[in-house]
Batch of 4 targets.
Target 1
Amino acid sequence: MMCDRHAQARVQLEQEKAFGNDAEKEDAHPEARVPAPPVSPEPPGVTTAGNDAANISNHTRKNRPKQRKDEKDSCGNLDKPFYASEVSDHAAKNLSNLTGGVKTQKGKSETNGNYVQGPRNPQEACSEEAVKPAKKRRPVTVDSAKAKTSLEALKLSIKQLKWKEFPLGRRAACDIYWHGVSFHDNDNVSSGQVNKFPGMIEMLRKINTSRAVRTMQELFPEEYDFYPRSWILPEEFQLFCAQAVMQMIHQGAPLIRMVKEKDATLSPTFIVKPDGGSQGDGIYLIRDPSELKATVGSQARQGVVQEYIHKPLLIDKLKFDIRLYVLMKSLEPLEIYIAKEGLTRFCTEPYQEPSQKNLSHVFMHLTNYSLNVHSGNFVHSESQSTGSKRTLSSVLYRLAAKGVDIKKVWSDIIALVIKTLIAVVPELKVYYHAEIPPGKPGPTCFQILGFDILLMKNLKPVLLEVNSNPSMRIEHEQEVAPGVFKYVPSPVDKEVKVGVIRDTLRLMDPGHKKPSIYQLRPGGLEHSEEIPMESETPERSPDEGALPSLCLKQVYPKYAKQFNHLRLVERIAGLFIRFLGVKGNMRLGPTAFRTFIRSCKLSNSNFTMAA
């Protein structure tokens, strides 16, 4: 019985093909067509059964006016021959019925198994598609099990986006993994996206950041004049002592390059920062190298000593700094976004130029929130423009009211951010390729960074440091009773940080990702002139209709032409990665070094292994 049905199906298909071929021949003779009957707005369904279906389909083909190949239908789509879809669709339907297959068909099925064909008019088909609701996309999944202090802001962001959160993790893979500290918070991630880069913590330690920026200062001194002169401890302790003494003898102004005003009454002041310190821990000021606490117990203290920035810009007689949130959306190719809104953190004691008497006044000289929050003068404000923590826009508004060119300030800050990341990217790529070698399955990465920037009195921005894990907490610690502290909501933090996290997620939405035409070269080396330029705002999905516009502005590659000449060290890093040889390795061994020397034709002699 089944064989008879299959045989009947094959005969049916051959007949349908024959009718299609006849229709092509008949289309060549327009005079043979029969005028088609008028079509009603809602034509009744045509019941077809057996071979009669082919005859009715053939009659419809002959009655349809011929269209040119490039003619468009009422929906704006290029129209294909009408009969082609009818023959193939109807043959498939009859084959399904004959073989007992269960398939969803367009139109309706009667109780006798015959098929009732729906309207074929193009305008009606277009109107049907317009009425049909858009296919609801699968919500993006976010693993927040390791989010730690950023959890509350992350939860609010996911809720606003109508995405799906997995606070306890998930056995199946998620689209996005949100880590609180490092890439290695969860080592079982092999796909999706992680909000941390491998090696970012190491690269943004104070010593490594200082070393990277100093390398660029040697290559491009005028481009990197936004970073104070610094010495690495303990290895440059003797050099620091010698240069500090010479400076004291000559009673010169601070050595920082951007200060042009000479003030002979100022003697040098230095600020000491431990390498792995955070939240102001271990920072102190000195005026003499002998005051340096060079050791911790029996071990040499690793850190950086920098020239103290004199003449900072003051508001309400208070020193302040800027916390700017920067998204590194991609490492290869390099893609950087800057948040349009940031925070300003104020000292809680009126500023005076450093002297031997006030060096220990941390509430006067250090802008760290974690220190000043314990001052009796710290002001928690519901307003974004008052208190000890304010929005960046409120401060810029006050400066603009005094005639300051805010566009110039923003331009200088953007340049500082791009140049700083260009300095740290080369070694970051080495870490990245060691952790996720090309060809090895692994997640893609992105990361929110915190730039701490000081504005000088002449409005020149100065880089203080870059934080790999900026605090995204949206509540602050408040003393509710003597010695009793608890966390209460902070409107200023919530306004800024939720927007940054939410719009970072929007930019990383896997549904918005477009295939990149950017091709990586071996070892991750890239040609900057080939960087694709993308619009700042991605297309919104229907779920994003109620969301505000993005608070993150793309600055690279948007302004790539102004900075591509600075990516010299990145090319060197590309060569280094190329000749490493062993995947996951970070050191160039003797064999790899000899290969490098020969390939680059740096020497004609043959090196021995010992040499």
Note: The chain is about 30% helix and 20% strand.
Target 2
Amino acid sequence: MYRLISLSYKAKSKFKPACASINFISSIDSTANSPQNSGGFSSLFHNFSRFSSILSSGFSPDCSKIDNLSENRSGISGSQGLVHKRSFCSETEPSRESINYDVVIVGAGPAGLSAAIRLKQLCREKDVDLSVCVVEKGAEVGAHILSGNVFEPRALDELLPQWKQEGAPIHVPVSTDKFYLLTKDHALSLPSPSNNNGNYVISLSQLVRWLGIKAEELGIEIYPGFAASEILYDESDKVIGIATNDMGVAKDGTRKDNFQRGVELRGQVTLLAEGCRGSLSEKIIRKYNLRDKGQGQHQTYALGIKEVWEIGADMHKPGSVLHTVGWPLDHKTYGGSFLYHMQDKQVAIGLVVALNYHNPFLNPFEEFQKFKGHPAIRHILQGGTVLQYGARTLNEGGYQSIPYPVFPGGAIIGCSAGFLNVPKIKGTHTAMKSGMLAGESAFNMLHKGSPMETFWDNLKNSWIWSELYRARNYRPAFEYGLLPGLALSAFERYITKGRSPWTLKHGKPDHEATKEARLCSPIEYPKPDGIVSFDVPTSLYRSNTNHDHDQPAHLQLRDPQIPQVVNLPVYAGPESRYCPARVYEYVPDDDGQVKLQINAQNCLHCKACDIKDPKQNIEWRVPEGGGGPGYSIM
């Protein structure tokens, strides 16, 4: 894969951006001769490197010369005639250059790449020349992708029908599908709430890398290592693109020697595919009041914590799928676990905890460690090795919480909008389909003059809408507790089949659900045994997470006094527990006063703090591009 040109080698053979250059190289060390690195990406990043050197030289670019950078792009596989020439300007600020595209997509995940691929497919079918750019904050495509993942190929079948013949990393069909209700020492088998016939156990980060290769074959320009930090508007408040953040800024705000201004990526259409709780998407939703214009209810979230293990051959059953509810969570806290057997003796194991839990002493990370010690689970892992660790929030609001996805100048797609099917525990297929529909609407807008609002109509007429409608009452049923939730969801599935004449509402927003500490009992967690349970530093090391320490903290307190005045005395400092990376710690200062310390370099980009903080006092902003986790098999 491809990374920023300025890299330093880190323990465990992972790269991190060490300086702010926007130059690229086409391949690194042992990947230089990889088949994945041939063709499009190499020539594309070579040309971008040439462009970057012009910008870095301090000269105002001659646009006629810059246009000639596209002369070698005919070498991109399958992209002849599909790449626009670029124009560069500095209309708004002399020190920040801009690049013009027809479509700018933020996020190289399933939704963003599916949108780009579908749009370019239509360009080929209709012989139309439109330029598409995808910007990705991860150091490489797939680096920030974390999911279960039992994959339903429905959307992929529509997007790339020949995916099997074209080498998609989808090899392990589901062989068994079990669902348990756990008590502390027992596992009661229940009917599975989902049907996984025809589905596959996969690594989503690997699938996304493959989609990136398919995208560049169509002439799509993908820029990993660039964090979109700002929305650009014109005089009429219409979105006209995004800007990446400045790089090479020190923690104190001064410019380091390697300072580089961000770049404006301007497009006639901007698609936001940032994933759950995307920072730009949330700003757009608030600015244009999209939540109320859509289904009207607030979004509700969960935190998923996951590990990938290599286990003994005698324990490994490729394609075996297990989901559980119940222990270790209390009966008022919604959540559950998964255990998926992948290929090569690998298993994915995780715990999902709804973030509307009440007890501020609950620690999702520790609940996950406790879960792995259950008699039905421990024997599978014992003797194995943890290969990777990670965490990410997910949308659980479903049908009731879908915002109106169209805004002036673009649309919100995928998990940024929230299309997860809760009873299926799947959102990749719906995210991909939403991206495909948005890509079609963007093409028709640019080619035929159709309004972008057709995306909303097409979304409501698609199988996404009918699927989420049938599943709409599953998640809010658990507002009444575990056993009533199981009964109500079974009624919805087996009796009304999702056609009930009512639609249940969600409870309080997640941050409002936290009770005061005086109303709750502290939770004592067992110490890690180093065999199946581990501490946070050990786990964090396995996530390959890294940020440049000398940069402004991307986790900002709107009011620096709230942790000491409210969170600690009233809620017992919940941020020190809901964060799965120990970003937030209460430590005594030189005067013995306990204050909140933010270890931003630990951040997994899970967004739990942005969601769960009781007073919504934490603002999550994008750090320098290329920072964060480095997932490879998640």
Note: The longest helix spans residues 428-448.
Target 3
Amino acid sequence: MHHLQFLDISYNTRLGFRGLKNVTTDLSKTSIEIFKFKKLVPTFSMNQMLMRDHLVPLRNTKIKEMYFDSNRIQLLQAGLISLLPKTIDTISISDNPLSYGEYVLEFRQLSVKVLNISFRSTSHLPVNEGFCVSDLDETDFEQTVYEFNNVIVEHQVSTMSRQFMVFNDGFKLDVLNIINLPLQLRVLYFANSKSEFEIQRLRFSENVLEKVDVSSNIFYSLKGPIVNLPHLNELDLSNNFCSNISNVFFHGTSNIQKLLLQNNLLGFILPNDEKGEIFRPLVKLEIIDLSDNRIPRLPYSIFESHQSIKEINLKRNVLEKMQFKIDHMRKLTFLDLSNNVIRFLDAGETTNLEKVAKYSPNFTIDLSRNPIQCVCSNLNFIRWMATTKIRFNGLQSYSCQLSNLTKMSLAHPKDLEQILEKECSSYLGLILVVCSALVLFVVAVTTCIIYRYRWKLRYIYFMAKLKYKKAPSIFKNALSYDFDAFVSYADEDQNFVHDKFINHVEGEGELRICLHKRDFLVGNEIAANITDAIHRSRKTVCIISRPFLNSYWCMFEFNIARMESIYSRDGENIVYLIFLEQISTNKLPLVLLELVQSQSYIEFPNDEYCDTVFWENLKQVLSD
């Protein structure tokens, strides 16, 4: 068959590697390009070594692709890789329990562009297959010892191999300085291999590697940095139980365009990256998948360095808000926020989305399967959904929860907006009217009460201040009245008080009079002095004149004396009015006129005889 280009002898478990040698011997005379010999060895056979003799006949062919998956291959014989033809560009050796040996040092000689070494430690279900110990003699394994009961394989390999790497239940990098990759390798698959370790600093030889898939392992911590992968544009780190990424891990992979990190535990580390340092080196990033990471929130600057990003996948997390910055992403076309716990987007978040849509007309967002609430407080969000030009992926499946806990479809947000506006506006108007009326009523009633009892409140305030704050008093004896009378007068009437009143009442009548200019304590408040003086005086005499009526402090003294009479003297009349001049009743304040009409007052006489009688009567009244 000189023109044979494709041959697949896979799943012939009775053929074994001895039969493989027979096949490859004849292939040297064909035009073979693709050769598949998957699962020639039963699943539960002993581990195998792929020997040079198995593949050496292919040396002079122009084969391009080889697939030898699921063959229980544990080792490749030293020198095998160097015998492979230079035309080969794809090798798949997945689902084999590979251990490390000297063959690893030959990787650099491979001409492959695609290398698949995934499923290194895959578990298999028992099936009805034949079982063979080995197709090889024991000498072929270079003193290999088998222990069946523990399924342990021990290899006695060269000293150089032991120093290079150690394999033990997974693998661990010990003294590796540089990882040698095939010169032309562009795609590397190392997925589903159950490798469990922390990725520390790794340096690669010169390469053109563009895509790496290391998904579904247990790389629980990514410390790095990963050095010298300048052509890498796609990296798959999904399904790795990863809970930590250092700020320097991506420093050597600045050209990554597609980063897959779904189904990890990055909710423990990303919320703490307030400065956006983890992903900052990835300036060319276009697609990032962070779904299924239990992320409760993302910092504002997490994507600040990514202006070329086109897709962000954050579905199936526990995000309540979309607080991260996206308004600088001019190429963003799709943002997936489905299956989170978002109840609404506030004004700042919708503004960010609108800025993106301004430069990206096809911008689409997915908010499906979020517990969106259709209540009055979220009316602005529903109104935005009804008016925005942004596309909603799967809008027909959107639903929201009303205030009565029933669900309603969001497929037609304009209809829902009208329903909410009608419901919320009626309550809002009623609430505003009731609240406004209530506030006005309370203010009016409070104002009236304060105005009605303003003098009482002032009196109580100053009396309490004197009592509880122990303000200094101008008097010595607190058990009796220290003055017979307190005289309230305007400054314009001080000549009458000092020249006549004091001489006749205090000088001749031997009564003690309290005057503010003489007896008030310096340093005390005026109001406190007035209240204290009236409280310590048996009577209060008001010298009524037009200046008196126009004086604030004179009217203050009159009203405090009135409060003293009502609340401290059980209604006893202690206020006496002396009119120095004729004043019409319409000029008198209402409270003063009320006192004039209900109680006695006296006018100062203008003749000498009446003057004598006036002073005698006054002294008698003040001394009672």
Note: The radius of gyration is 50 Å.
Target 4
Amino acid sequence: MEPSPAPGELGAMLQAARDFASYPGLHSDDTVRQFLERFPLPKLLGALQSEADVPGMVETVTECLDKVFSSRYGASLLPSYGAFIQTGLLTDLKDIRKLACKAVLHLLDKAEDGAAAVETVVQHNLYPVLIKCLTEGDEEISSIILDAVKRLAEIPKGAEIIFPPDGQGSVQLGKVASQSSSLARIRILSLIAKLFTVSSYTATAIRDSNLLSIFEDEIKDRRDMLKTLSALEVLYELVEHPHSIVFLLKTNLLQLIIDVINDSSADSVIRSRAALISGRLLSSADAFTAIDQSCVTNLLAAIDKILKAEENQNTDEIESALETLGLIGTTTQGAHFLLTSSNVARHVVEASFDRQGRGRQLAALHAFGSIGGVDRQEDQMKLDGQAEEHLKRLVYTTAANSSKLSPSALLLSILQQDPDTRIAGYRVISGLVVREWCLREVCLNSEIIKLVTDPTMETTKLGMEARYNCCVAINKSLSSSHLLHEKSLSELIGKLSDAVRRGPYLTERKRVEARPVVVPAERF
């Protein structure tokens, strides 16, 4: 037990601790060292263990110590106080437990010698206590623990505490999850998601420990909407990471996600999140070599069902379905599959030019740009012959069935709408214009060229850049096309060249010279 300060010095120490804690930024190492020379760490810790009944004392001292441990100098002292950290993690006093949690984070985050920091964790058996705090603490404490355990996993020896090479660790996350409340299981899932992103070692360990099955169990049981949605939210964050595609597609998760999308009794929020997860899973070229094509076909059928349902008035669900198709269409393989193995891509093209719902139209336009190749490398923008033919037919059929009659008139109508819709329209044109048929439609419509080359058209940085990128795409496609030599397009070609040369932000402004003003004497 640390020595408590004498009653006479307690008041002075608390005032100094209050002043130290109230400093708005981080203290320098020198400042921390000078403070601890006046009030040694054992006495500060002793104040927390004293029985003195001083209002606000625990809160003041814990805030002060957090400032101390936030410095590199203060963190370097923590290996000598592992016993205090362990006791703090086990206490029922929230302020002290929170300080102990943050002390572990500072210890791992600021230690110059990672191995020594890990040794402190091992010596005082802190990892099992951290997991206990994660499952039983409040939201604030569990959030700190998530960061601390992730930091532990980022240190090679620390990762072995969580996932021992022999698989016989003192804490089995799967076992903890099976014995915990639904809230604690979601926190375990959040921890798994964070650990998954650390390295291929931790991702492999998670797979080998069968921890991904916890996601499956939570998603299968859809009786508790909030629990299912929470699990899907964590999974949604997880599928953003590069490691996820390789591992997750080798589980039953995608099939379970499809089941959720097909479940008409499930809440639309749950189905929407499930759809976006599937889109993220299939937004990688590797995905189409890792799974059976029938699984993708089943997914597209589920998405098609959402978009075809005339009674579906849920705009969020429709927008999520369209966004999902855009994610799938990001890669060449995905775009090819959308256009040749299913009729689902027609929803994207038709909704892109349908002004019935703004959010729906924006989602469709964004997806259309992705399918058209705007997000792909230049040499991968165009698809094979069959897919390209389907794409062209979709656009011309949609135009023929509209009041505009031609693709160029449809594209022009997009550029004549509000700024957000125009930005999405620039994306679509930038992707489609690598195709000769679209390039001709654009170049033979002088109004389109007038709008995309107008430097005053957009007022936001995003809008200016989107318009400029569209100019560059048209100009580049034109430079390698036989249309370049058509005399009727010479003025247009000049406009595009000037617009590209100006850049995205510059506008031509006539310089106004200063002029002397002559004022008659009678005025005075």
Note: Confidence is low (pLDDT under 50) at residues 509-513.
